[in-house]
Amino acid sequence: MPAAGAFAVDGRDGRVGRVLERSGDLVRLRPPGGGPEWVCPAEDVQPASPGEVLRARVTEINREGQLPR
């Protein structure tokens, strides 16, 4: 199980998200760059591959560059 703050993959549909918390048998994930969070059964959460982590981090950095300062 990836730790809070790490990127993980929802094995049900392949979405990548940052782990926010684990509560019992559920894991709450947030997509890179923001958006609606979702809940995934812990048994379906997998660690993100290095390529998936890289793409997710680029998405977050690009999103940060678009925010008003």
What does it look like?
The chain is an alpha+beta fold and 69 residues long. Helix content is 25%, strand content 35%. It has one helix at residues 50-66; strands spanning 7-10, 16-23, 26-30, 38-41, 45-47. Strands 4-3-2-1-5 form a five-stranded antiparallel beta sheet, with helices on one face. β2 (16-23) and β3 form a beta hairpin. The longest helix is centred in the last third of the chain and has 17 residues, at 50-66. The chain is globular, with a radius of gyration of 12 Å. The model has no long low-confidence stretch (mean pLDDT 93).
Task: Describe the structure concisely.
The chain has 69 residues and is an alpha+beta fold.
List the helices and strands and how they pair.
Layout: E1 7-10, E2 16-23, E3 26-30, E4 38-41, E5 45-47, H1 50-66
Antiparallel strand pairs: 1-2, 1-5, 2-3, 3-4
Task: Give start-end ranges of low-pLDDT stretches.
Answer: none
The coarse silhouette is: globular
For the largest beta-sheet, the strand count, sense and barrel status come to:
5 strands, antiparallel
Gap between N and C termini: 35 Å
How helix-rich are the residues, as a percent range? 10-25%
Kindly state the number of beta strands.
5
Determine the strand fraction and express it as a percent band: 25-35%
Along the chain, the helix and strand elements come as EEEEEH
Question: Number of helix segments?
Answer: 1
Strand order, main sheet: write it out: 4-3-2-1-5
Gyration radius, rounded: 12 Å
Look at the helices and sheets and give the structural class: alpha+beta
Question: What would the average pLDDT be, to the nearest integer?
Answer: 93
